[in-house]
Amino acid sequence: MRINIYQIDSNKDTKGRMFLGYDMVGKDGVDPEIYKKVYSGYTETSDLEDIFKEFNSEFHGTMQGHSLSVSDIVEVCEGDVDVAEGTYFCDSIGYKKLDDFDTSKCAEMDGFRVLMIEPNRPPVETRLPDELEKLQRAVSPDGSESFIEITYPFRDNAVVLGNEEAKLIGMKGNRHIGGSVYAGQIYVIGDNGDGEFCDLTDKQIEKYSKMFAEPEDISDEEVQSDSGFMFVGF
């Protein structure tokens, strides 16, 4: 499933609603204006309870909030036969489906506008903070501060951000780009020409979403045999 996760912004929580169950806040309505998006991406699970277990305990490189907890909102953007699309309030026990939660009123994630591309999945637009430690964690499979590699395979100012050691530590093959195999999760992000990152434009989001729309089946043997990266690590 493809999901978004929203959490209460403590700076806007004037009534102390963070971590309260639906019975405590439902009578006044769940106010989207105090929420902020903290994650956008895919999950292997197909059940809301499994989403809770996954995001309550496992590492996710682009997650910007705390572990999934009571009062958080899970938006199912692409559901399946078991879970319909919509927004769900994480309650003390289970979830409460919300029919009138307007996610457009929630604050956006922090950072640069990027495309996240993971092995075996279509691209997802998300955001990466302009902080080295968080960028290092974003390319990590386990939350460690990994070495970053930046490659320049395109004709515009878009670059690819990835894990310098992806092939060495056995990360899965992801996409063929410019004659090379890229492994692990990668991010297409803008370069402002002065050695700093910047947002992708609307046209770039559309362009690279189409370019990498189809996941590729790349064997471990092909990943290991490829050595065509040219990178700058830090």
Could you explain the architecture of this structure?
This protein is α+β, with helices and mostly antiparallel strands and 234 residues long. It contains 5 helices and 14 strands. Strands 6, 7, 8, 9, 12, 13 and 14 form a 7-stranded antiparallel sheet that branches. Strand 8 and strand 9 form a beta hairpin.
Rg result:
19 Å
Order of helices and strands: EHEHEEEEEHEEEEEEHHE
**Residues in helix, %:** 10-25%
* Strand elements, count: 14
Arithmetic mean pLDDT: 92
Strand content: 25-35%
Point out poorly predicted stretches: 228-234
Structural class call reads alpha+beta
Terminal CA distance: 33 Å
Number of domains: 2
* Largest beta-sheet details: 7 strands, antiparallel
**Outline:** globular
Q: Counting H and I runs of at least 4 residues, what is the number of helices?
A: 5
Give a brief description.
With 234 residues, the chain is of the alpha+beta class. It is built from 5 helices and 14 strands. The protein has 2 domains: 2-105, no CATH class; 112-233, no CATH class.
